[in-house]
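Sample entry follows:

_____
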Amino acid sequence: MKKRSIAEGSADRLGGRVLLRRMLPLVVFFSLLALVPPTKAQPKAKNVLVLSGGRGRVSINLMEYSLRTRFQRPVNFSIVDLENPRFEQESYQQNLAEALRGGYSAEKLDLVIAVMTPSLEFAVEYRDRIFPGVPIVFMSVSTPLPDQMWHGVTGVASAEGIPQTIDLALRLHPDTKAVAVITDVSEVDKDWLAEEHSDLLLRHPQVTEIDLVGPANPGLLQRIATLPPHTVALFQLFPQDANQPAFGAYDVLAAVAQRLPTYSIVPAIILDRGGIGGATYDPTKDAVLAGEIAARVLSGERADNIPVAHNSNTQFSVDWRQLRRWNIPESALPPGTRVLYREPSLWVRGRKYFLAGIAVIVAQTLLIFGLFWQRARRKETEAELRRSEEKFSKSFRESPLAISIVSTKDGRYIDVNETFEQQTGWRRNELIGRSPLDLGLWADPDQRSLFIKRLLAEGKVRDLEVKVRRKDGQIRTALGSAELIEVNGEPCALSVIADVTERKQAEEALAGLSGRLIEAQEEERKRIARELHDDYNQRLAMLAIDLERLAENGGHSSVETSQYLHQLSDHATKLGDDLHSLSHRLHSSTLETLGLVAGVKAFCKEFAEQQGVQVDFVHENVPLKVPSDAALCMFRITQEALRNVKRHSGAHRAEVRLEQADGRLHLSVSDGGRGFDSGKPAAERGIGIHSMEERLRPLGGKLEIHSRIMEGTKIDAWLPLKIATAA
């Protein structure tokens, strides 16, 4: 259905007003409508499927921007991440292809973009089954391409950076006699090894090649220990993403980098781990070229008629700390080299101290001159002092904040300003000579006693929230600060307070609204979970049973048909299991039935099985009956924290601790992952952390986050048991 234009809608409203107010003839109204131009039909959007190898999200964003700047029609992007420990298995790829075929069977694809070599190989092998006839554009691919390019396939081939990395190593170490190539035995590694062998063969006999081929193991360290002097290491052992063994590639890298200058054609795996650096292709140009080619294909050009673009640009990256360690001057680096982890200079590190020292010297100099100058202007200074006192008195009287001066000796008012009179309802002549206790100004006298003790001990009090009773009995909330001063040689307290009653009421209303929103969200989750479990899950179970019966009883059906029916039954059963798991995540029946400890323990076990992350759950001294609101709050925080471990930390193990300490429920979730800068402002934190804080706030709880980069993360949630019981 076409939408009416804004101009047409305006004409309708204008015509309506004319008819209602001035009763003009209908002819005028239809004449106005005739002047409105017809709405133009929106062009149909193009559909693009991106198969990502898992490490190119930034490049995908650059490619998308490059495509949209050159193709003005709407484009819908769908991104599928193929990175998985089981991706190399043929059965996994077949199941993935079947899932993609079912997921995109109802959607007409105009283009497939393959990012990295595994994605390209998968797309070429299974495209007739998943998206027949759809052109393919590849990017971030450096593996040698076939002599005869596949039909309907084009893209960007990137330089591998092998000769550039070898040139960099020999340039920075001119006395090198041998290059030790440390690599594995995969197909990609074999191709790289062959190219490295060809390049090093040209440098023979000045430089010899030593091949250390094989997986990471302790035996490899023994071979590395026997390498001769004046040897440079070319490291290309890749760490495993999952199921990391006890001894891995990083252990080998640590041993090699400790003994030899180490380089890599993939600098990211050695930088900040003892390696010097290397050369790799320019990802920015790669993404821009891929976006240009994709725009040409979407504009109607055949992929077979677009030649493969070659990104020969390489980018050098080195670790400044390793340059210092191996005594390599920066002047020896190729132009344009990225120097990372540079240590700040002495001036940058000590700038604040230097500036402070200079400021002290300048201040002392000015003070000396000031002492002499003060003698000459003593009378003028006294006059200035009197004027200053007059200004202070005027500011004191006319300040929009309530100000009072109270003697700390007997607690009686010495002076107050007009704002203080307005906020408390007491006149100045009624206050002078009387104490706040005499007037009952403090709604909580004990709080005033603590305030006086703290003021006398520390000399000042900042941002103290108190309840003030006005003369008419009304209780108001005030935020104040106080400082010890002297008036005529007598110690007094100068207090400044502001009425924040309306703000506190707004904060309480906002907190109540937040609590109601969370409660509504939980009710909706419970409803959806119940509907998934009681309706869709049961229907899928019946469908799986019917398919199984049909497969068993189809006497005249072929073997292929029977197998296919069995597969459909298995798919339906797995889908039912996934729906059951989703229902459990939305609403934990274990939490509702057996309590907080059982609910958290069950979720930790389920999370570990599904996500491949070991979760150690420990509980101590937790009450058997925790109120439902408090239990649900702690349970949701556990869910969100463990999901963050999986999404962001890269850790393979986490610990969840639930205990009662100092009259409070304490939940701790920690991991040893990559961590982050916890000192960032609250506004820059993720939505998950804000969600935890919003859940704790209505119950009077508190959230603490402790994290450092590469040192793991720990989240502590505290909930007072009294407040939890009241909830």
